[in-house]
Amino acid sequence: MAAQREMASNRETYGHTLLSMAEEYPDIVVLGGDLNVSVFVHLWRDKYPDRFYDFGPSEQNLIAVGAGLAASGQIPFVSTFSVFGVGRPFDQLRVLVAQPHLNLKLVCTHAGILTGEDGMSAQAIEDLALACSLSGFTVVCPSDSIETAQVVRAAAANDGPIYIRLARAATPVIHGQDYKYTPDRSEVIRQGNDVSIIAMGVMVSVALDAADLLSQSGVQARVINMHTLRPADEATILAAARETGAVVTAEEHYIHGGLGSIVGQVISQNHPAPIEMVALQGYSESGKPEELMVKNGLTPEGLRNAAEKAIKRKRG
Amino acid sequence: MLATTARAQNITSRNRRSLTPEYSTEQLESLAKEVRRDIITTIHNVGTGHPGGSLSELEILISLYFGAMRHDPNNPSWPDRDRLILSKGHASPGLYAVLARAGYFPREELSTFRKINSRLQGHAHPMTPGVEMNSGSLGMGLSFALGCALAARLTRKDYLVYAILGDGECDEGEIWEAAMAASHHKAGNLIALVDRNRIQNDRFTDEVMTLEPLAAKWRAFGWRVIETPGHEFPPLLDAIARARRGRTKPTVIIAHTVKGKGVSFMENNPAFHGRAPNDEEYQKAMKELA
Q1: Considering A307, A311, B213, B223, which has the largest number of Cβ atoms within 10 A of its Cβ?
Q2: Nearest C-alpha in B relative to A51
Q3: Which pLDDT tens digit goes with each residue over B2-24?
Q4: Which pLDDT score is estimated for A66?
Q5: Which domain does B45 fall in, by range?
Q6: How many whole angstroms separate alpha carbon B125 and alpha carbon A172?
Q7: Nearest Cα residue in chain A from B80
Q8: Contact state of B148 with A72 under an 8 Å Cβ cutoff
Q9: In the structure, what pLDDT confidence band is assigned to residue A2 with cuts at 50, 70 and 90?
Q10: Closest-CA residue to B285 (of B111, B56, B41)
């Protein structure tokens, strides 16, 4: 039975966090693409209209203008939906942002199947694969509202391009107010030595529930919140492989090019161990977010089964 | 030969934004001929590159770097500098040759173009002193230039931003996204210059994609349009001077140019969009440019 947790909207947290940084960072300028209420930058637009530009749904232009602002010393926060902010202007991200390593902050919401009823075209399930393929980009998928606020603040403080992936739906709050996010270090959120579940985003809370299920049969699962895919915290991944001998990856993203691919790459090259990957196998469909999670196996039970399989493989 | 570097520095040291050039037309024409030789030599030297568009854009570049622009070759990242964004980044030999003459880097470095360990990449990249934007994928430069122009507004600076676009490049949808956005956001400090040489990669622009009525398209997008011959300095400089006046809407200068200008067998010849001259062609070109 899943733990009851408070729910919070990470995109709303993003909008408020941005607002809270306005005085501290006079060089922040916010760019939107006609989805400003949905991505919560309307808060900034209404308070700082001189530091806000709307470009309508013209995402190639949106990213490229952001690059020009970044090259001129501004700190552009560019926000739209993940499908429009990463996929559509991929070439602009590659040529104008990644290759010259400009200080552009791409914060997109409505990623993954939690977008729900809008259906497969609106559900970015390949955004991490695209973003992780951009050399020099930092790629972060916060696990809850508490972490989102700190990720956004760190993005403003640190130089360089970053993609931050947020969902449309409210997600469980798994951290206390005392949580301290460290950009280059994954969080071991639950200790255990029988198997490791490496998760990101909303799947961290699902992984915690899976660990509860596993403990009922005496299996102690380590749960790792891998909030940052690029650069990957290889030390924490390898410690998991070494110390627990079996790994499950859990992501609300396509199985190719996301968390599973990265963890698999790190482990296979350094300390081979059985890995089970829980991820989307392809495009999804319209439906309620929770229905889509169940249909795609992104559940505590799904993770438990994967963990048991991984453990069996290490013994075999 | 002109003491061009010293003169350029002299201009910028006084923060001058000239409305009339200090160089005589004859001096600029003589410089253009020398730079044409540099371009052909640079491309022939490595055996690859884009001569056609480098030759067609040349007078535009010289008008900017030796006339209109406020810049300092000794301080390429000077925050108050006017910016030149080469959106058609394949025409980098033209830009490199002019930047070298202006004093951004030694002219001898042109011989490293497109070779390993060089600062002079095949398509212009900001690793080269004086280059503002990475390039090679068409259609992006006007948006990037708009970003620079909006940054001037945010930081209360009075610099101007110039963007050189290819005419074939105007097939890209992003050009028109940027055109719409620049007029909507009243970027009066943004000046686009279309190198209207009527030839793109494969063939003549009319054969690939109809652009006309090009001026009417820009006007419809809210831009002020100035048309000018693209290889004569007095009208070009005058067009740029007119574009600099007024600050409410962006201006596009459609410069009517000739692809491959200055080398008879390259002129108006689609074959030389992206091909280097062979040894025989090189000798012939250099003879014509003597």
Answers
A1: A307
A2: B154
A3: 444 434 443 443 344 544 458 99
A4: 98
A5: 4-15+24-288
A6: 45
A7: A72
A8: yes
A9: low
A10: B41
CA dihedral A209→A214→A219→A224, nearest 10 degrees, is -30
Q: Do domains A7-172 and A187-315 have the same CATH topology?
A: yes
Testing the interface with B: which of A65, A77, A134 to mutate, by most B Cβ within 10 A?
A65
Per-residue pLDDT, B15: 44
What is this structure's pTM?
0.95
**Domain spans in chain A, listed from the N-terminal domain onward:** 7-172, 187-315
The pLDDT > 70 percentage for chain B reads 93
Please list, residue by residue across A244-273, b when 16 or more beta carbons sit within 10 angstroms of its beta carbon and e when fewer do: bbbbbbbbbbbbebbbbbbbeebbeeeeeb
3-class SS of residue A253:
strand
**Chain-wide mean pLDDT for chain A?**
97
In 3-state terms, what secondary structure has residue A135? coil
Whether A196 contacts A168, CB under 8 Å = no
Instruction: Give A187-315's CATH code, choosing from 3.40.50.720, 3.40.309.10, 3.30.470.20, 3.40.50.920.
Output: 3.40.50.920
Catalytic annotation, residues of A: 59
Calculate how close chain A gets to B234, using CA atoms only, in Å.
Answer: 31
Q: How do residues B78-119 score in pLDDT, each as one tens digit?
A: 999 999 999 999 999 999 999 999 999 999 999 999 999 999
A55 interaction partners in chain B (CB closer than 8 Å): 177, 181
Q: Could you tell me which of A234, A190, A236, A235 has the C-alpha nearest to residue A213?
A: A190
CB atoms inside a 10 Å sphere around CB A216: 8
The CATH code of the domain that includes B98 is 3.40.50.970
Amino acid at the residue B242: R
The pLDDT of B270-275, averaged and rounded, is: 96
Question: In angstroms, rounded to a whole number, what is the distance separating the alpha carbons of residues A110 and A39?
Answer: 8
As a whole number, mean pLDDT of residues B195-199 equals 98
Q: Does A51 touch chain B (CB under 8 A)?
A: yes
| Element of type H or E holding B148 | helix B141-154
Q: Which fold has domain A7-172?
A: Rossmann fold (3.40.50)
pLDDT tens, B28-49?
Answer: 999 999 999 999 999 999 999 9
Contact state of A67 with B126 under an 8 Å Cβ cutoff: no
Mutation choice for A interface testing from B80, B125, B154, B172 by most A CBs within 10 A: B154
Enumerate the β-bridge partners of residue A275: A247
**Strands A7-8, A171-172: parallel, antiparallel or unpaired by DSSP?**
antiparallel
Dist CA A199 CA A132 (whole Å): 16
Number of domains chain B contains: 1
